[in-house]
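tokens incoming
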């Protein structure tokens, strides 16, 4: 009768959920800011700045981020005062999930801005994997790719601007076919594994989640 493990487990699960939602909210706050502009929050979940007319504040996301700390605090105090903190946690998580659902369902995605944010250095790992496919151990190709990045930085250019002759000074196995590495779509499609970034894999993950949610809804 006196066992309260279920209270602690419930508040812990809620706390962990809020940690993930807090990180998610922070990502969207950053990606909706001026320097990025990858997404735009609906006016229903954002307000104008009291000082700068052009600025839109993602208030809903800020609240989600802040509530993570509240639920974390409840977890720390639940051993001493379980019922009040349990009820507060359940109410808080209920509201946070509803707000997060609203933000996500009305979020405007800006693919063109995302594409504009791509940079050559994002493909440095692909450059290392290019040599791996030619038989060089990754523990070595990692350093070779790093050397290419440094060469580009020293010259004030991008990895795209390095010629095959430049790359051959780093490793002789670089040949003309290295040009295929500089393709962002190819990079994503190459990771065609469970949980990978290829279109097939992403669609598979989406379908698995839809199937899971449909099954959960029947209970």
């Amino acid at each position: 009768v006196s066992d309260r493990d279920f209270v602690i487990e419930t508040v812990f699960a809620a706390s962990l959920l809020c940690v993930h939602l807090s990180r998610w909210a922070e990502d969207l706050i950053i990606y909706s800011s001026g320097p990025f502009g990858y997404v735009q929050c609906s006016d229903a979940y954002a307000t104008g700045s009291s000082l700068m007319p052009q600025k839109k504040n993602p208030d809903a996301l800020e609240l989600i981020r802040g509530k993570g700390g509240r639920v974390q605090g409840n977890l720390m105090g639940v051993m001493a005062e379980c019922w009040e903190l349990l009820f507060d946690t359940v109410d808080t998580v209920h509201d946070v999930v509803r707000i997060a659902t609203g933000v996500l369902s009305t979020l405007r995605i800006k693919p063109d801005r995302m594409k504009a944010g791509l940079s050559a250095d994002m493909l440095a790992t692909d450059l290392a994997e290019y040599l791996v496919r030619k038989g060089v151990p990754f523990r070595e190709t990692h350093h070779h790719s790093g050397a290419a990045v440094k060469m580009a930085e020293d010259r004030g250019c991008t990895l795209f601007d390095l010629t095959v002759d430049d790359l051959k000074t780093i490793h002789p196995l670089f040949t003309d076919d290295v040009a295929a590495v500089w393709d962002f779509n190819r990079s994503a499609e190459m990771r065609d594994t469970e949980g990978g970034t290829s279109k097939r894999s992403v669609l598979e993950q989406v379908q698995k989640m839809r199937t899971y949610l449909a099954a959960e809804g029947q209970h």
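note: The chain has nine helices and four strands.
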